Amino acid sequence: MTTLMLFLAVLGQLLLAAHALRRGDLGLCAAFAALPLLLLTRRGAARLATAGALVLGALFWVDAGLGLVRLRLALGQDWLRLALILSGVTCASLGAGLWLLGGRARELFSQGRAVELPQAAAFGLTTGLLALARAKASVPLLLADRFLSGPVPGAGWLEILALALYAAWLAGAFMDPERHKRLRPRVWALFSAVFFGQLALGLLGLQDFLMTGKLHLPVPALILAGPIFRGGGLFMAILFSATVLFVGPAWCSHLCYIGAWDDACSRLGPGRPEPLPARWTFWGRAATLALACGGALALRLAGVDAMTATWLAAGFGLAGVGVMLAVSRRCGVMAHCTAFCPMGLVGNLLGRLMPWRVRIDLTTCTRCRSCSRACRYSALSGADIEAGRPALSCTLCGDCIGACPHDSMHYRFPGLSRPAARAAFLTLVAALSAVFLGVARM
Ligand code: SF4
Ligand code: SF4
Questions:
Q1: From the CA of 135, how far away is ligand 1's center (Å)?
Q2: Computed over its alpha carbons, how large is the radius of gyration of the chain?
Q3: Could you tell me if 196 and 264 are in contact, meaning their C-beta atoms sit under 8 angstroms apart?
Q4: Does residue 384 line the site of ligand 1, with CB under 6 A?
Q5: What per-residue confidence (pLDDT) applies to 208?
Q6: What pLDDT sits at residue 271?
Q7: Is the CB of 423 under 6 A from ligand 1?
Q8: 377-384: long-range contacts, CB 8 A cutoff, minimum separation 24
Q9: Rounded to the nearest whole angstrom, what is the distance from the C-alpha of residue 354 to the centroid of ligand 1?
């Protein structure tokens, strides 16, 4: 029985690969043909991802079968044999998919069982988001589609598979608080390096590394100020808002292309960060928010040309880099993000609308302040710890959770247990990190 079901699971995916090949989509064919190899890892996440692919495949065969039968009926051709064959394929695919969700398959694919659900969810979410973005975008979004679509039509599917595997790996690693603390700055820095690396290649003349070729400055304040000045161009504002909708203020601890620089600068500072006063983190950014938005509106109303506005925006961005070098590096805190960048404040405030939170369990907290020493966002003063929750400037980075020796800090989401809240939040973060790596470019 086990051998038969595994055979059907592989066959189901190869049939989907064959169908993609028939349509000339070589990339999708290769991605489906590669999927069964995941089963060789004996990992629980591979079992769940394969089950998902087979069940969705069964729905696809039903839809395709109905379409073909209708066509044959309209042409007055024989349809019964076709219907029987496709029904058999559907049943085999569905049967193998459901079997993979059962107890025997669970025993067989026992590697990484503790993280199988987050890993499989991150894999599926990344695949779904990238497939949707790829289908809806007016330009090829993925580098594989831009560079390889000649020899390999549909090569973007192979990139989607690679990014989904990356997301699954990240989700698994993030489940361990200590590992998340170590990995987060590296993953964030990698994303920023890829983002700016592509910008540099684009500026050197390799246009395929740019999104559309219509350049704008990579200064986060322009996410709001840009549309106010131009009277349109809301793509980045929508992307920022959608991210906040998924993961609250975690844009500023995992996903922002500039925030990674401030993180790197703060890590050059003293091991014990010197937190900034709460009034700085609010009023400093409130002032730059007013300056960025009010300034953009004033420039627009005054009819100032785009080039002058760009130079002013560049000056604002350079002032931010100055804050990183002069303050973040010296104090070991993210001074740019917590006291200068207006989008940091917008992320913190909008993030409050989402229920993701970090909370301190005061019944086990010994007030040792290990969490404060780990927080680079100046969000854990003595008063914050006594209140059982971080200050507004918290970005849900999770560093304090990995630093607490008493397991007193946790992610929280109403209705979810602590482990479930952690798994759900970091699964979303891992999937978005992989999606941004694939599509974020100027
Ligand atoms: S505060 Fe600004 S620069 Fe820092 S991570 Fe947030 S948006 Fe990016
Ligand atoms: S309170 Fe914790 S989760 Fe929030 S920013 Fe500080 S270290 Fe990160």
A1: 29
A2: 25
A3: no
A4: no
A5: 87
A6: 78
A7: no
A8: 377/253, 377/333, 377/334, 377/337, 377/338, 378/273, 378/275, 378/276, 378/277, 378/278, 378/281, 378/333, 378/334, 378/338, 380/275, 381/275, 381/278
A9: 18
Counting ligands in written order, the one closest to the CA of 281 is 1
Residue-wise pLDDT tens digits, 77-98:
889 999 999 999 999 999 999 9
Q: Which tokens hold the place of 369?
A: 């302040």
Here the tokens at position 401 are: 């959770």
Residues facing 111 on adjacent strands: 43
pLDDT at 213: 64
Of 301, 400, 267, 292, the C-alpha closest to 342 is 292
Ligand 2 binding pocket mutation candidate from 333, 358, 361, 370 (most atoms within 8 A of CB): 358
> What is the percent of the chain where pLDDT is above 90?
87
Alpha helices, DSSP H, located in 137-252: 143-148, 156-174, 177-203, 222-230, 235-247
The distance from CA 428 to its chain's CA centroid, rounded to whole angstroms, is 6
Q: Is 198 helix (H, G, I), strand (E, B) or coil?
A: helix
pLDDT at 387: 96
* 3-state DSSP assignment of residue 360: strand
Answer yes or no: is the C-beta of 344 below 6 A from any ligand 1 atom. yes
The first and second tokens of residue 297, run together, are 């509106």
DSSP-derived 3-state class of residue 204: coil
Q: pTM of this prediction?
A: 0.93
Please tell me the distance from the alpha carbon of residue 138 to that of residue 151, in angstroms, as a whole number.
Answer: 22
CB-based contact 35:50 (threshold 8 Å): yes
Atom number of ligand 2 nearest to Cα 375 = 7
DSSP codes joined into one string, 69-88: HHHHHHHT---HHHHHHHHH
Residues of the chain with pLDDT under 70: 213-215
Q: What is the pLDDT of residue 18?
A: 94
